[in-house]
Amino acid sequence: QVQLVESGGGLVQAGGSLRLSCAASGSIFSINAMGWYRQAPGEQRELVAVIRRDGSVNYADSVKGRFTISRDNAKNTVYLQMNSLKPEDTAVYYCNARYYDFVTAQNGDYWGQGTQVTVSS
To answer: What is the model's pLDDT at position 111?
Structure first.
């Protein structure tokens, strides 16, 4: 009942910037938090940044000071501004939305299709 569509990935040189967007549609009232995850080949999917309903944010240590997560509530869109990109940032980036199901008393997740970010040296 929630669809997430990412955009903004691409190829960039080290030191450059990219801005990822994630547009949510459907039953967005059920979402408690949204975030960005990434997965490099042979690696686990890891949390990059999260923003909650109250506006609080958290970042992975590896991206603090370089990445900024933000949202536009009117557009139901979450952004990830990525500056000072490094080759180790290369990964598929996935938009995530977490919700709480009161019937099952469990958290659930919606995922976007992923967008490739490649940083060359």
So the answer is: 97
